[in-house]
Amino acid sequence: MSQPAATPELPFLGPSASSDGAAGAADAAAGVSRWADIHGPVHYLDFGGPARGPLIVGVHGLAGSAVNWAAIAPLLTSRCRVLALDLAGHGLTRSGRRRTDVQANRLLLDGFLELVAATPVILMGNSMGGMISLLEAGAAPGRVSGLILVDPALPFVPARPDLLVAIVFAAGGLPGLGTALLRSVHRLPAEAIVSSTLALCCEVPARVPAGVIAQHVAVARERAGFAEAGRDMAIATRSVIVTAGPGGHAYRQGIAQLSCPVLLLHGERDRLVPVSAARAAARAHPSWSLVVLPGIGHVPELEAPSECADAILSWLDSSGRPAAQAATRSRTPTGGASIRRLARRWRTSDGR
Question: Would you say residue 5 lies in a domain?
Fold first, then answer.
C-alpha cells in the first residue's frame, strides 16, 4: 500500500468523477479511491454526487470496508454526495499505531468528518458501523444531522441466537483463540473469504451484483499481505461484544439521549443482529422511522440496494428532511485561517 503524499488541499470541493462518458460513469459507480492522513493513512471512496447535495458518509461493519456501499451509492448520488471510509484495521486502512476497537474507530470517524465537512453530515452505518455512528452522534451531535442505520449492532435483546453466528462470535471474541482463528481465516483465498462472508451475512448471496463482489475480492487480495489483520479483527470483535452486551450501559444511555432524525433499515432474515433488536429500538424511540426488509439478511445495502435506496430517498423527503437540509449547507470552511488550521491537522491526497 502506498503512503499518501501530503498536500494542504481539502477534498470535497466538487464532483469527484470524470464527466468524460462511460469512463467517468464507471469511476463514479465504483468510487474514486482517495487517502487522508488522520494519525496515519486512511483510505476512503468518493462516489461523487452533487457538490452541494446532502453529504452522506458510509461507515461499514466488522470485517467490512468502504466497498460495502458500492451497490447502493450509485443509487443515491443523483441527489446526495456519498463518501465511505475504511476504518482502522479494515479494508485498506492499516492500523499502524492506531487501535481498532469501537471507541478508537469512533475517534477516527470524528477526525474524518472534521476533514470533509464544515457542517453536519448524515451517517449511514451498517452493523458495527451503525454502532460507531450512534456513538459519534451522541459524542459529537454537532457533526451529525441524521442517522441511516442499516442492521446496526444494537444493544443485545433476549433472542434465540443463530448457532453458527454464536460460535463464530464466541470464538472470535476470546483473547488468543480469536486472534488465531481470524488469522487462519485471513490466510484463505480471497474468493473464499468473500464467499463465506456473504453466505453468513446474506439470505441469498446471489443477489449481490457480480461487479460489487469483484471489488470485495480485490480488497481481500490486498489485505492478504497485512500480517496484523487477524489481531486487528479480534480486537474489534471483542469491543463490539462488550459495547452491545449487558455491561454496555454507556451505549444504551447514549442512544436514549439522541435527538437527530433516524432511519432504521433492517433485514428480516438477519442472522447476526435479530430483527427483534430493531423493533425493540423502534418501540423505545417512536420518532425513529423503521423499515423492515422481508427476506433480506444482515447487509441490505448489498443484497437489496434498490429497496434500501428507495427507503432512504423517501425518508429524506419526509422525516429526514431536517437532516438533509442541515447536511446541504456549504461545506467549505470559511476564512483562510480556518483552512490553514484544518490543513495542518489533517492532510489529504487522491493517492492515485
Answer: no
